[in-house]
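Fold tokens
===========
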Amino acid sequence: MIIARPGPVVLAVMLVAALAGCTGAPAPTGAAEPVPVAAEGPGEFTPLTATVITPPTALPGSDGQTHLAFELLITNTAPRSATLTRVTVADATAPDALLADLAGDALLERTALAGDLAVNPTVTVPAYSTAFVTFDAITTGDAPATLRPTVSAGFAPPSADQPPYVSIFPDDIVQELPVVPVLDEPIVVIGPALKGGDWAMVNACCILSAHRGALLGRDGSLVAPERYAIDFVRIGEDGRYFTGNTHTIESDLSYGAELLAVADGTVIAVSDELPDQPVGVNPVGYSLDELAGNKIVLKLGPGLFALYAHNEPGSPLVEVGDTVKKGDVLALLGNSGNSTAPHLHFHLMSAPQPLNSDGVPYVWDEYDLLGQPDATGNLVMLDQPQVQKHRYALATAVIRFAD
């Protein structure tokens, strides 16, 4: 697989295919409750209802803009199938100031049915069903305090065998949804999880991917544990992520890289019993606890945990109970668990269970930006590296940490 470089490439498509799924998978119920959007006004009949899983936090991105990532659950309460045609997000105090405007393919690429962990894009919401739209509201200035989503949809005609009451539901709607608050919280700043580069950000925020689509139940409520997860894949000067003509463990450029503690913390989980998967083979037969492969979980503070997944067997240098300092080597990058190509799956989370927690936003203290997606999502390499401080590395970006 050749990835042209410099210039526009389709690195994200190729690597997402190679890493489809990663740790995302069905999970048992188990905590932050979804936050219902607040109703306003005297009330009106609304065939669609909306809920957010977690209100967004302003996230500085590698594109120099501020991103507000959240999942909007849209339930069709009508007895007729709905087709979403447009969904927008505006500053609630300035309705004409659109921060996201999704229609056509752009809406399709960010919408799926709740419970579909294969994340098949669709804008059709069957009767009495729920879809989710993965929003990335973007602003170049300060984030607003509140957001106002609006949805446009059409409903299928009633079938001949349906009772007369279905006629009370409209054929088409433009429905203003309740306000979504923006959390005013400090962002977590962490150090590098790896050394050097060049590292491609695969399945990262804020696109719809296997990470973003892994909406799971915790204590009877939905959470999005992998909202800000990143699959790190190393690419070479020629734009490829392996050497030679065949992609194997031995030829992979990522395999065996040292994994670093992103902050001071305590080791609370280490697993090291699973073998590496052959490259390109779809894993089967894993239990829920084995999906992350050989993993390390660090506790960085109250309600703040870091996951390192798919590690090389036999490589952990730490044990449960060890204290670590920022920059300490923890283990080596591998291909264990639910993985089809070597990579580091990394994310911060609100609880110690990788798939039974909510994702926590974070930024890297410093890195060099080498490439970033253009307006169509294709990677464009920069003429000169750009130093980024306290910014998240967005999906498809290529970065380099200090050696």
